[in-house]
Specification:
Elements: E1 2-8, E2 12-18, E3 24-30, E4 35-39, H1 52-73, H2 84-95, H3 99-114, E5 134-144, H4 154-161, E6 187-199, E7 205-208, E8 220-225, H5 235-253, H6 270-278
Antiparallel strand pairs: 1-2, 2-3, 3-4, 5-6, 5-8, 6-7
Helix pairs in contact: 2-4, 2-5
């Protein structure tokens, strides 16, 4: 992916994006990331007439354009829970929690997951849902200070501290070194109630949203497919790894190879899972058992 800012005025930015098919997209967006113009001669204008792969190339170009404007101009153009800098901040904030603080913020999520596997009755907010269907539990995370007000950006500062094997992921087991991280100290200001997403496997999705504690957009969203938390040594480490996999997915969905520390397999985003499962541009990075041919999305 390549992108060049072609113009800017007091309300909008224009870009030329070259996707991984070497096809140009001309995009114009407002400073909040709203894309009001997208021209590309090589793909069908009507999304319904595009192949799955062509549609994904179009979506990659839009995601990458927002990321490029955010990083080059500083405008908050990336949807908050899709921004790798915010995700990195949430990862660090959760990793730094004491056992008691982690239990306070995420104990209800761990308990909800346990109910699927300990013989308890699974109480879903949908009358037509089966506990054996695809169930994703989500929890929004609000941080202090603001992760997008750092220079250099949060993710770049973290990568600058990464001293592991250049060919190995840094965060695959949820264990990270917090030494020398004072400049990247984030507190969990609040978390939401639990959201429940149900997919019946036939193309129908429904979401029940929990309470939102603050009147602003969250910085990150934990979203885990129902699994037995007793299968992992530490649920806190699991969530840290999960956010690392989310960072991986956000780069892949921009058509970009993830930074080396995030090239690891495991459950990241629900959107990433859908794309990796059903679009040939991606390997199944969400699965720890899949054979990965390349970390380069096409």
């Amino acid at each position: 992916m390549e992108s060049t800012i072609t113009g800017e005025d007091e309300v909008a930015v224009g870009l030329s994006v070259i996707d991984n098919n070497d096809i140009e997209h001309l995009i114009e967006m407002e400073f909040d990331g709203d894309i009001y113009h997208h021209c590309c001669d090589e793909y069908e204008n009507n999304p319904a007439l595009r192949t799955r792969e062509d549609g994904e190339h179009v979506d990659q170009a839009r995601r990458y354009a927002r990321w490029h404007v955010y990083r080059e101009r500083g405008y908050d153009t990336v949807p908050p829970t899709e921004n790798p800098d915010r995700l990195m901040a949430a990862l660090l904030g959760i990793a730094m929690l004491s056992n008691a603080a982690f239990e306070e913020h995420f104990g209800d999520l761990e308990e909800r997951l346990h109910r699927h596997y300990d013989g308890s009755s699974v109480d879903l907010p949908f009358p037509d849902a089966d506990p054996d269907d695809a169930i994703v539990y989500q929890k929004d995370v609000y941080l202090e200070p603001n992760p997008v007000e750092f220079e250099p950006p949060v993710l770049e500062q973290f990568l600058g501290r990464f001293e592991g094997d250049a060919d190995s992921p840094a965060l695959a087991d949820g264990e990270i070194s917090l030494a020398d991280m004072d400049a990247l100290a984030f507190e969990i200001a609040a978390v939401s109630g639990i959201h429940t997403l149900h997919n019946d496997g036939q193309g129908t999705e429904q979401v029940d949203y929990g309470e939102q504690p603050l009147d602003r957009e969250p910085d990150a969203r934990v979203e885990v497919m129902a699994f037995d938390p007793a299968s992992v040594d530490s649920f806190q480490h699991y969530l840290v790894s999960h956010l690392a996999y989310q960072i991986r997915d956000r780069f892949l969905l921009m058509g970009v190879k993830p930074p080396v520390p995030f090239r690891a397999q495991g459950w990241g985003t629900y959107k990433g899972f859908q794309c990796q499962r059903f679009c040939s541009l991606y390997d199944e990075y969400w699965s720890s058992e899949a054979t990965i041919q390349s970390w380069e999305p096409w």
